[in-house]
Specification:
Blueprint (H helix, E strand, L loop, with lengths): L6 E3 L9 H9 L7 E3 L4 H11 L14 H5 L19 H10 L3 H6 L3 H21 L4 H12 L8 H8 L3 H13 L3 E4 L15 E4 L2 H7 L5 H5 L4 H19 L7 E6 L5 E8 L2 E7 L27 E4 L5 E2 L5 E4 L5
Parallel strand pairs: 1-2, 7-8, 8-10
Antiparallel strand pairs: 3-4, 5-6, 6-7, 9-10
Amino acid sequence: MNYKGPIIIDEIQYAPNLFPYIKMEVDESNEKGKYWLTGSQKFELMKNVSESLAGRVSILEMSSLSFSEKKGFNSPIFDPTNIKNKYNILPDEIFKNIYKGGMPEYINDELERNQFFNDYLLTYLERDVRTMSGVGDLTKFRKFLIAIAARNGEVLNYNSLCENADIDAKTAKNWISILEASDIIYLLKPYFSSELKRSTKAPKIVFLDTGLCSYLCGWNTIESLINSSTSGHYLETFVISELIKNKRNNLSNLNYNIYFYRDRDGKEIDLIIELNNVIYPFEIKKTAKPEKSMISNFKVLENTNLKIGNGGLLCFYPNIIPLDEKNKSYPISIIF
């Protein structure tokens, strides 16, 4: 190679022939940070990395901007064992961020929303989807993408999805994997334990950029989104996506897993954080009037041998108040 580093190579997936040479350079030197490889097509990038540079790289996943990044403050990873109320963030500000999302170019340049997301989708469909998957019918794929967005915050049901998107199950599973690889969606795994034998095994759909999701679903104003029947799902996935982003941005700190719980009787817990073999349950509600009944589904965790930590309700009430001897109502701002 003509350049010995340190060097940044952008969109490295378009030059796969460079990987063997980078491997040889890295193997000949113990120097770290000589090559910084970036790429917008995660699927192709990771394929080449795993084939040529396994064990030789540190990987940083970059989502769209988190709430704290947009506001310009440092947000440590959320710690369920040490919860503090650091900020006073109004509900309107939360939903403004849900509606806009965190695409850097859109946020920084104040571009016209509909034009930006339409251009983004056209670029994504033509460049990423067609290139990495061989999808022939992009019109049908876009219809599928809208169907997925309409199910944001819901448990994945392939039968319903296939019917609405007019595709078969094999195609749906393939296209779901494309959206995962592209970091468009995150499939939140259900919490499973031998202690909870009635729990579902299907994941929940979480859009990592709620702005893109709201555009796909046709919400043209913040007010229409807030007043919609799905606004609670948007708030829930906003919280989940923020936890995912902050976890990615703080890899050197706490390492925990996040889940949800749902059983065959329809009882659901929006968020379960598992840290050091202890689970911390949380409900996420679009309300400023917390009530103990809102965490009634926590009862499914009782009479088990699971180690259950303090949890509670994440909502729009501005202060931390107790709901019972173990759980509290928290303002959503505690996650930042």
